Amino acid sequence: MAYLKILWYTVSRYSRNHSSPLPKSRNQAFTGSFIVIGSFCLSYFFLSASISNSPPTLIAASFASRLLSISSSSITSTYKHFPANYASISSSSQSREIKTHLNSCNIFHGKWVLDKRSRPHYKPGSCPYVDSAFNCFKNGRTDSNYFQLRWKPHGCNIPRFNGTKMLELLRGKRVVFVGDSLNRNMWQSLVCSLRNSLVDKSRVLDVSGRRRFKTQGFYSFRFKDYKCSIDFIKSPFLVQEWKNADKKGTRRETLRLDLIQESSTTQYHNADILIFNTGHWWTHHKTNKGNNYFQEGNRVYIRLEVEEAYTRALKTWAKWVDSKVNSTKTRVFFRGYSASHFRGGQWNSGGSCDGETEPIWNDSFLGPYPWMMNVLESVMSGMKTPVSYLNITRMTDYRKDGHPSIFRQSEVRSGRRPIIQDCSHWCLPGVPDSWNELLYVSLLMSHHL
Question: What average pLDDT does the chain have?
Answer without folding.
Answer: 80
